[in-house]
UniProtKB/TrEMBL annotation:
Gene3D superfamilies the UniProt entry points to: HAD superfamily/HAD-like (3.40.50.1000), Pyrimidine 5'-nucleotidase (UMPH-1), N-terminal domain (1.10.150.340)
GO CC, any one term: cytoplasm
Transmembrane segments: none
InterPro entries: HAD-like_sf (IPR036412), HAD_sf (IPR023214), Pyrimidine_nucleotidase_eu (IPR006434)
Pfam families: UMPH-1 (PF05822)
EC number of this enzyme: 3.1.3.5
GO molecular function annotations of the record: 5'-nucleotidase activity; magnesium ion binding; nucleotide binding
Catalytic function, reaction form: a ribonucleoside 5'-phosphate + H2O = a ribonucleoside + phosphate
Name recorded for this polypeptide: 5'-nucleotidase
Family from the record: Belongs to the pyrimidine 5'-nucleotidase family.
């Protein structure tokens, strides 16, 4: 088998939107994943603009916080207030010059301000649920095959998100992909007995602390210790730490979606094994997953 045979077999070297800096490394990791099989595999994925789409017909899709923040549940004045917060903090989140030590506190401030706006908006659980079902963004093309295959072959999926867990779970229900092998670690809302939003569960999860420090308990990684191979899916540098805490890791294949701000391509190709530029599908992930499940295909 030649050094690039797996890459060619999966058509990872024939498409202009797929960027691989170290082909030999990716070839070796892919070969190891396939040789070890589905029994040793787990998948860890971001949600917003990784499992969900970034844009449809050139129009950017809302992220999980946006589903509520941009909805009719919020007054026009409140939507303007949210936009001001986003416009101030988002450029700092993706900045290539602000050091990480500063970004962490900025992201805590960012998410805290957004959550405080939600808490001041007299939201209730039933209205939130209805809004999610009517306004949630689409998932990436091929999401159903991806999540169904993981379920059918009992491969655990951890969805690790700095977004809103309530929105993510409602979206999975809407798109009929609620499966027992999938766990969501995210920011979840607290409601009182009357269904009013009264808070958010600790800890606060933001883009730069998505690691074992915010997991509810050790069992998220340790209960399946034999699954030492990981496919990690993300759309930002902060997502790379999502597999921190997986015991006895042998192989990690890091697949990054670069949805916009293409000036960050060099950074992404340095950090991720495979970078998918402006790709709204799960095609590459699904082809790799199917090869691991059935090496003969």
């Amino acid at each position: 088998m030649s050094s690039s045979s797996m890459l060619h077999l999966l058509r990872l070297v024939e498409q202009d939107h797929i960027h691989i800096t170290d082909a030999n490394h990716v070839e070796q990791v892919l070969s190891n994943l396939v040789a070890a099989g589905k029994q040793k595999l787990r998948v860890i994925s971001d949600f917003d603009q990784t499992l969900s789409r970034y844009a449809v017909d050139g129009v950017r899709c809302p992220m999980s916080h946006d589903v509520i923040a941009q909805s009719s549940l919020m007054s026009e004045q409140t939507r303007v207030k949210v936009k001001k917060v986003v416009d101030y903090y988002y450029p700092k989140e993706i900045s290539l010059t602000i050091p990480m030590s500063e970004k962490v506190q900025l992201m805590v401030d960012y998410w805290t301000q957004i959550h405080d706006i939600f808490l001041a908006s007299d939201l209730n659980q039933q209205d939130i649920s209805s809004t999610i079902h009517s306004n949630s963004p689409p998932l990436r093309e091929g999401y159903d095959a991806f999540m169904s295959a993981l379920h059918q072959h009992d491969i655990p999926l951890l969805v690790f998100s700095a977004g809103l867990g309530d929105v993510i779970q409602e979206m999975f229900a809407k798109y009929s992909v609620v499966y027992p092998n999938c766990r969501v670690v995210s920011n979840f809302m607290k409601f009182d007995d009357a269904g009013k939003l009264v808070g958010f569960h600790d800890p606060l999860i933001h883009i730069f602390n998505k690691n074992k420090s915010v997991l509810p308990d050790e069992s998220y990684f340790t209960e399946q210790r034999k699954r030492t191979n990981v496919i990690l899916l993300g759309d930002s540098p902060g997502d790379l730490q999502m597999a921190d805490g997986v015991p006895n890791v042998e192989n990690v294949l890091k697949i990054g979606y670069l949805n916009a701000h293409l000036e960050r391509l060099d950074l992404f190709t340095e950090l991720y094994d495979i970078v998918l530029v402006e790709d709204e599908t799960m095609d590459v992930v699904n082809s790799i997953l199917q090869k691991i499940i059935d090496p003969s295909c």
